[in-house]
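PROTOCOL LOG
Step 1. Enter all chains and additional molecules of the complex.
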Amino acid sequence: MSFCLETYLQESDDYEILLSRAGFKDCAKIIKERATEVLYINPGDKVLGVRIIGIPPIPVGVNNDKGTIIVSYTKPCHGTAAIELPVDVEEIENIRKIAIDK
Amino acid sequence: MKKALILLGCPESPSQTPMAVYASHKLSKMEYDVTMASTPAATKLLEVSDPENYYIKNKIDIESCLDGLEQDKYDLLVGFVHKDAAASYFITFYHILQCESIAIVFEKDADLLEEFKSMVAENTDAKIVAVRAFHNPTPLRVKFDRVLKDLV
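Step 2. Run joint prediction.
Step 3. Record the structure below.
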């Protein structure tokens, strides 16, 4: 079964919420500040089984040393959050495949 | 028959539900097959407002809709933009669908209104209906009617 971010956030506790109930731009800023590498994707591209919502180009942070990524996660009534969570190397490679030039 | 998607945001703004019912009615009269994408809370407001589905024929959960969205699935996107998250959703739906779009931008705070309007203008080619509004949907309705005339 493929990874699902929604389920993961409900069932796990090894992720860190860097910012919550915020605007997209503030989350994009913290992603760029807290990641050693930043990849960019288009709105609606899927990361961890979820379409990422936002303003293009959408940053996805990668911390290779920690094996984590930082993504923005938006809900209509709760705004946008920036979440850092551990992922497999394979998932980082999947993000590289859909990455666009900034 | 052309297909229109009306994208609703968080339902806490009082103008959204009546304007959504109105927009659905107007677009149906223009021969559009209209689908309403909304959160569960916004859907409940629609269901109480239109108990016999007279104005709103098709409803879909916003997350399910987004998951199955693809280019050219709809001919027209109409989105309610009254929060930062709603602007992000509208821009995302616009980029996936790549179709003619109308953003109904409204806020009671003038600075936030300008911010949401700029977000949409800088990232889409959507027609923008922007009004400083909260409780009273009339200014939105009047400007929306004007934009609809350009669709004919």
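Step 4. Note key features.
The mean pLDDT of chain B is 96.
Chain B has six helices and six strands.
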